[in-house]
Each structure stands twice: as C-alpha cells, then as structure tokens.
Amino acid sequence: MKTCLLSLIVTLALLGQVGASETPPNIIVLLCDDLGYGDLECYGHPTIKTPNLNRLAAEGIRFSDCYSAAPVCSPSRVGLLTGRSPNRAGVYDWIPEAGKPTANLRHLVHMRQQEQTIAQFLRPAGYKTCQVGKWHCNSRFNQPTQPQPGDFGFDHWLATQNNAAPSHENPTNFVRNGTRIGPIKGYSCQLIVDEAIDWLSKDKNSSPFFLFVAFHEPHEPVASPESMVQHYLSSAKTKDQAQYFANVANIDDAVGRLIHQLDEMQLRENTIIIFTSDNGPETLNRYRSANRSYGQSGPLKGMKLHTTEAGFRVAGILNWKNHLPKALIGSVNETPITALDFLPTFCELANASIPADHHLDGTSITPILRNDQFERKKPLIWAYYNAINDARIAMRDGQWKVLAKLNGGKTRKLTNLTRDTLPLVRDAELTDFEIYNLQTDIQEQNNLASSNPELTKRLSKKLLDEYRTLVNESHVW
C-alpha cells in the first residue's frame, strides 16, 4: 500500500510539471511591430499605461533579455515561425512587395515551402491553427507563385502582406483565406482580435489551438482612436507623440479583450501566452512618414535596424495561468531567450515531434518554466547585412555581447544575398571586434576587446566559427 501511495504521489508530481501534462496547452503568440524595449509600463515607460500587459507579467514571467530573430520585420517573423535563423531561409531584410525584377532579386524573396513552421509541427499533434494580422513573409502575397499562410499550416488566416493600409484606421488591404475583403471599419489591432475571438467562438471543439496574433501597431503609419489620443495630450510633447502613446495603449486594450474572451470561454487555465515584438523601435523621422515614431529603447543602445541591443532586444512576457511554479509568478528572468526558442518549446509542451535531422537554432526553454537550470549549447548569432551601425555581425553568449565589422566596415550594405553578392560576405574578414559584459554594461559603453585579449581571442573565434557555419548554410537567391 505504501508503494502504491508513493507511486501516486510521484505520478501527480510529474503531471504538475511544465512539459509533462497529459493535456497539451493552447498556445498564443502576440507579436507587436516596432515596439520599443521601453514602450510598456512594466518595462519602465513613464507615460503609457498598459494594465493588461502589466497583469500578464505580474501573473507570469517578464524576461529582461528577450531577443527577436532579427532587427527588422520580415526575417524576424520567419525566424519566430521556423525556429531557425532567417538567413537559412534566405530572408535577410524586410520584403518589399514584388514589382519589376531587380538586380538584387528581392522580388523573389519569400519563406520557401521547404521551411516548416510552428503551425505545421503542431497540426499533426491535433492542434487547430489561426494567424491574424501582418504576414510579411513573402513578396507575392496572396498569389499562387509563392506559398501563403495557409500553405504553412494555418487553418484560418486574416492577413496583410506588410503594413495595414492606408493606416491602422479603417484598413483596406486585408485578405481572409485568400479572398480580399475590402475596407473594414475600426483599428487594426482591434480588428484582428475581433477575428481571433470570432475564430475561437465558432470552433468550440476540444482540440488545443495555436493562435498567432501579429499586430501592425505601433509601426507607421500610426493611427489611434481619438479618445485615447486625447487622454495622452496633456503628457505628450506633441499630438503625434500622443498618437504613438495611444497606439501602444490600444494594443494593450486589444490584448485585454482577447484575455477576457479566453476567461469567458474557460480557455485560460491551460493557455500559454507569449507577448513580444519583432524588433526594436523605429527612429523618429527616419523616413517621410515616420513622424509618429516615438518608440523608446529604454536603457539600450541604438534602434531598429541596429545590431546593438535596441535593434533586437525586445519585451518578452510569458503567462501560463496556474501552471508555473509559484517562485516564477511575477518574476523578472534575466536568462537570454530568443523567438527562435518558441518552436522547440511549443513542440515539447504539445508532444509534437520534430525530425532528428531538422536543424533548429532555437532551444526549448521548458526548464525555465519549471524553474530548473537552463543551458544553451550554442550562442545566439545575427548577421544583418543592412545594419545602420557598421557592425553587421552580432553574438550573445551568456553574459557577453560581441560585435564585428566585415572587412573593417568596407563591405557595402546588402538587402539580399545572390550568387553575385555571396562572396562579399562569405569571404569577408571579421574585424573591429567589440565585447561588452551585458550584466554590468547594458548600454554597451565599455568595449573590453582591447583590455582583455584572452577573452577577445576566445569570443572572436567562437563568433567567427558560428558566422562561417551560418553563412555557408544560408539560402542564396
């Protein structure tokens, strides 16, 4: 009898552990566009109120060192969906809508059918899947010449190729499951949450679900409800800044509506929610219509399109009601994680199989969710050939951040890799190494490369090895 009792206790303990549940969790990814590291109230913004996201963080985990897969939108999204460096997929920069053929072949760029997404791995495990919002993973959106969201495992989708147009207000460019739907009244973040709620409400079977909510906000052209704008006028320097503050607040409101719906449908208890951004904040007035880009990078150096921290260190909130150990509730976790980790994490939680020969760059973070020791076997690496700063290559290895130029910064900027341009980056020498201890120097001000030659030798070799492997395995158009 004692043996049976002990066996029962052990079994119940195992079932209570993250990743060992008999019931696969529902999974929601909430992805913002150009949200700055310092744009949320729970990440230190002094003005913008984000009560719903504050609550998700207070009841879950807030990651201080969460990274996107790239410092710009398209490659970041491809990385998140596939768990692989976007360079492997051949997506190196944002994808323009295809027009006339160009010498750099950007009109061909898309996430190729050979790639496999979160949705494709989860469907065989019994998941129903939905994507709403910004897609931006191909140049020929809603055309048969390139794969679309439905070809990547999404049962239902409502999407745009890039930004909501003409702005977030009353967009006209949404496509639902391959059919253009014309003008819609309302604001983009609320409209896509409407679609998500409608999808959840119509299909009430017991199957677990994966829902990918890709907000257009707060990417330009920014447009926000007037009542919210008025609320921020007294605390903003200009009405354009009030528009931006209201834009982020509108995202928070949309998130709150979705969470409320989950509660109403009694789906919240076993739903894991991750909120993050595709990259850092846009620079004010960098281009003609960026007049409302008042995103903040907090203590980080740089902005979107930079390989310094603000380019790809982003907000990261994970909430899983009643499934996380009490010690993690409301905690701030300093472990470096990346959007590349989402796919292997979700697959482990869902008991979805990944072929042994399928190369992933992300790592399952389920040990973190159990409050166990987490070990990343390989460093995080970014190769962004169109960076605004001169360092095109970056690596995060534990507490260390490493940056390097290509050929002393003489290699020209590239938005795509073709057979003609591949040698420029494949054969380039990595130079001008910068090394920062991010535990003590989050602002990347104290370059340790010259003062610590042994550290520089070790980390520069590791970066070089990782970079050579990545560039040799990158898809070339």
Structure description:
The chain is 27% helix and 17% strand. Strands 1, 2, 3, 4, 5, 6, 7, 8, 9, 10 and 11 form an eleven-stranded mixed sheet that branches. The chain has 477 residues and is α/β, with parallel strands linked by helices. The protein has two domains: 24-369, Alkaline Phosphatase, subunit A (3-Layer(aba) Sandwich); 380-472, Arylsulfatase, C-terminal domain. The protein is built from 13 helices and 15 strands. It has helices spanning 2-15, 51-58, 73-82, 86-89, 118-122, 188-202, 226-232, 239-264, 309-312, 342-350, 366-369, 422-426, 453-472, and strands at residues 26-32, 61-67, 128-134, 156-160, 175-176, 179-180, 209-214, 271-277, 313-320, 331-333, 337-338, 380-383, 393-397, 400-406, 430-437. The radius of gyration is 22 Å and the shape is globular.
Briefly say what this structure is.
The chain is an alpha/beta fold. It has 2 domains: 24-369, Alkaline Phosphatase, subunit A (3-Layer(aba) Sandwich); 380-472, 2-Layer Sandwich (Arylsulfatase, C-terminal domain).
The CATH class of the largest domain is Alpha Beta
Average pLDDT taken over every residue:
95
How far the N terminus sits from the C terminus, by CA atoms, comes to 67 Å
Range of helix content: 25-40%
Q: Treating each run of at least 4 consecutive H or I residues as one helix, how many helices? A: 13
What's the Cα radius of gyration? 22 Å
Q: What string gives the helices and strands in order? A: HEHEHHHEEEEHEHHEHEEEHHEEEHEH
Beta-strand segment tally: 15
Beta-strand content bin: 15-25%
What's the architecture of the largest domain, going by CATH?
3-Layer(aba) Sandwich
For CATH, the homologous superfamily of the largest domain is named as: Alkaline Phosphatase, subunit A
CATH topology of the largest domain: Alkaline Phosphatase, subunit A
Major pleated sheet: 11 strands, mixed
What structural class should be given to the helix and strand makeup? alpha/beta
Shape: globular
Low-confidence stretches: 1-16
User: How many separate domains?
Assistant: 2
